[in-house]
Structures are given as structure tokens and as C-alpha cells.
Amino acid sequence: MEIKGKTALITGGSKRIGKTITIGLAKEGCDVIIHYNYSEKEAQELKTFVESFGVKGYLLKADLTEEKDIIKLSEEASNIGVDILINNASIYYKAPLETATFKDLDTFYSIHVKAPFYLSKILGKKMYEKKEGRIINIVDYSAILPYPDYTPYTASKGALLTMTKAFAKEFAPYVLVNGILPGPIVPPEDLQDKELPLKKTLLKRWGGEQEIFKAVKYLIETEFTTGSLIPVEGGRLIF
């Protein structure tokens, strides 16, 4: 599918990986719907920037831990019209089993499972009716290779991984649904030792957000890849 002239919704699109995806798509001639929650200033600035490429930019605010906000976001995006859905919004923090709570599970599952599920259901149906569309889920390599103290996080990403395959079957043959498995792309903002995650990564360096956009671009343009999960993790899965 050609990117130019299409419209993409990027959840969590105003910062970090989401921002890079948003800019990359705008440079390719794609109108972008930037979802944000707390990052209004960054979203406004990004909207102005992407519009300098001659495309349309839209801002939609939603708290993805609130079902009413998820529903509203899907309705507003549907009214604009979406050809490409990038489920990128994520939350990441340590939750050891000894202290993990139902609230932790609810938070991770709301953002990583409920929101992508409902957005994919509503927007994917519209794409199916048009007989063309792309849904791309930003998962995590830890959905395959979990690590200690982050089980609620990795469990929710595992659900997103399975959901990617399920929606690929639901919307075949018109809507291609795929996932990306990032590894050490950019350090978490609160990470003290930035070298530690690289010790078990074959390439021994942070990948950078642009590597994720390259995978996104491929998954939009391909006509024969669906239900797949593309690792972009510097060899972490085979270390």
C-alpha cells in the first residue's frame, strides 16, 4: 500500500518512538492523527512541524486507561478516516511479583490490550469495508523472552502479540495486521545504567527510533506480509 495520501493514527504519537513514526509518515506524504494524553505541548509542537511537510495533522487526546476515552478516540478517528493504525502507546515500569497489584495489571492491560483491541476492532472494520488497510502493533521482544520484575508488563505485551495474529485472521485478506518487537531502541528516561541492557544484545548498542520507523514503513508498503512479528532488537532474542 502506498503511504502518500493515506491517513494514519499513531497512539502515543507525540514523544519518543511515536514521534519518530509520526514524522516519518508525514515526510512520506501521509496525514497523521497524533494521539496523546499528558503531552499536549509536545503534541501541539509536533502537529505544527508535520504540517510543514504539506500534510494534515490532527490531535486527539485520550487517557487509554479509561474505557470511555478509548471509545471516544476510536469514534473521533473513525470520523476523520484512518487507513493505517499504529498501536504504539505504552507504559513501562518495574512491578516485582511481591508487590504487583491488580491496579498494575489493569494499567498495563488497558494500554497494551484493551485500547489496541478496541481501536483495531472499530477502525479495522472500516478498513475491511474499504478493502485496504494496515494495523501495526508495537509489541516488545520481552513478549517472547520475558525478564524478571516486569511480569505484568511482559504478560500484557504477550497478549498484544497474540492479538496481532488473531486480528490478522479476522481481517484477512484486505487488512494486513503485523507487529514489531523492539529491543534496546532508546533508553528509558529513568534508566541509570544505560550500558546494562546492551550486555545481552549482540550489536551492543541502542538502535535508535528510526529503526522502528523503517519496519513500520515496510509493513505499510508490503502486500504479502500479515500476522508476522518483526524483531528489531539488535539480536537480543538469540543472545
List keywords for this structure.
globular, seven-stranded parallel β-sheet, 239 residues, alpha/beta, Rossmann fold, 6 helices
Widest sheet, order of strands? 3-2-1-4-5-6-7
Strand content: 15-25%
Enter the CATH topology name: Rossmann fold
Q: What would you call the structural class?
A: alpha/beta
The helix tally amounts to 6
Shape: globular
Order of helices and strands: EHEHEHEHEHEHE
Major beta-sheet overview: 7 strands, parallel
The CATH superfamily name is: NAD(P)-binding Rossmann-like Domain
Low-confidence stretches: none
CATH level 1 name: Alpha Beta
Strand and helix layout:
Elements: E1 7-10, H1 16-27, E2 31-36, H2 40-51, E3 57-61, H3 67-80, E4 84-87, H4 102-130, E5 133-138, H5 151-171, E6 175-182, H6 209-221, E7 229-232
Parallel strand pairs: 1-2, 1-4, 2-3, 4-5, 5-6, 6-7
Helix pairs in contact: 1-2, 1-6, 3-4, 4-5
Q: How would you sum up this structure in a few lines?
A:
The chain is an alpha/beta fold. It contains six helices and seven strands, in the order βαβαβαβαβαβαβ.
Write up this protein.
With 239 residues, this protein is α/β, with parallel strands linked by helices. It has one domain: Rossmann fold (3-Layer(aba) Sandwich), CATH 3.40.50.720. The protein is built from six helices and seven strands; from the N terminus they run βαβαβαβαβαβαβ. It has helices at residues 16-27, 40-51, 67-80, 102-130, 151-171, 209-221, and strands at 7-10, 31-36, 57-61, 84-87, 133-138, 175-182, 229-232. The chain has a seven-stranded parallel beta sheet with strand order 3-2-1-4-5-6-7, with helices on both faces. The longest helix has 29 residues, at 102-130. It is globular. The protein starts with 6 loop residues before the first strand and ends in a 7-residue tail after the last strand.
